[in-house]
Specification:
With 273 residues, the chain is mainly α. The chain contains ten helices and no strands.
Length: 273
């Protein structure tokens, strides 16, 4: 792993702290002999619940730290490393807090929401490591503006050759010039547009003599192939970015829903239990 990897940040500092927290929680739970069945209402249950609640609030504050560019409260990478490890520790801490007692109530709802947030967080870690590098490779060092300009330039070059081309080629080039990146929103998740006009143009020209006969027809064909490659890379980039955006649409609202449910859980315990 890279030295900058969040998993081994500062020689795995947060992994060690998390491991210590999990081990201490397990040892305390095993050693505890309450007069009643273990649950969130024992001294250990309250202790683990308090630790879990503090962790949840602190983990949500990562969003604030990430946007506090002038902050000197540790690096964003360090916070992210702690966010990942301590977030995973909640699986053990919160489960032991419940004493494995679940039901149709606000307490179990808070636990279930927490697990959903953790699962979405694991999904986010996978995206964090996978998508940014793939997105960079998809653009080949170009910006979206550069890519759009390159496609317009290719269309212009093709149009300049049209006076010497056949009428069927002219129709294909004009259709390709009006190509849509995606014809439906769902295609953003697959990165594929089955009705791509540029692909249809390349396929049609490859079946004719245009692709093999030297002259303007062949030049147009090669220019269309270049445009097809560009638009494929653009679609792949948008697909990767869409999955990142989808993750944020789930993880952030779920986190705030968890905070609200956790508050209700705490209030109900101290005022109505």
């Amino acid at each position: 792993m890279s030295d900058n990897n969040i998993f081994n940040y500062e020689n795995g500092r947060w992994f060690k702290w998390t491991a210590a927290l999990i081990i201490a929680s397990l040892v305390a739970y095993i050693a505890d002999t309450p007069a009643i069945k273990p649950n969130g209402g024992t001294w250990l249950g309250y202790t683990l619940g308090t630790i879990g609640a503090v962790l949840i609030v602190w983990l949500i504050l990562f969003g604030v730290r990430k946007r506090a560019y002038g902050s000197n409260m540790g690096t964003v990478r360090g916070w992210l490393s702690a966010h990942v490890y301590l977030g995973l520790s909640l699986i053990v801490v919160a489960t032991l807090h419940t004493g494995f007692e679940f039901g149709w109530n606000i307490h179990t709802a808070a636990y279930a929401l927490m697990m959903f947030v953790i699962v979405s967080g694991i999904w986010g870690v996978i995206i964090y490591f996978r998508n940014p590098s793939l997105m960079g490779r998809a653009l080949h060092g170009m910006t979206l503006e550069d890519m759009a300009k390159s496609m317009r330039d290719l269309d212009k070059q093709c149009r300049n050759l049209l006076p010497q081309a056949s009428p069927s080629t002219k129709d294909l080039v004009e259709a390709s010039a009006k190509v849509e990146v995606f014809s439906s929103g769902l295609q953003r998740f697959t990165g594929i547009n089955p009705s791509c006009a540029t692909t249809a143009t390349v396929d049609a020209m490859s079946r004719s003599t245009a692709a093999s006969t030297a002259g303007p027809e062949q030049e147009i064909y090669l220019l269309q192939v270049k445009k097809q490659q560009l638009i494929k890379r653009l679609r792949n980039y948008i697909r990767l970015r869409t999955w990142v955006e989808l993750w944020l649409m789930f993880h952030v609202p779920l986190s705030f829903a968890l905070l609200a449910t956790l508050t209700a859980h705490i209030v109900s315990v101290f005022f109505y239990w």
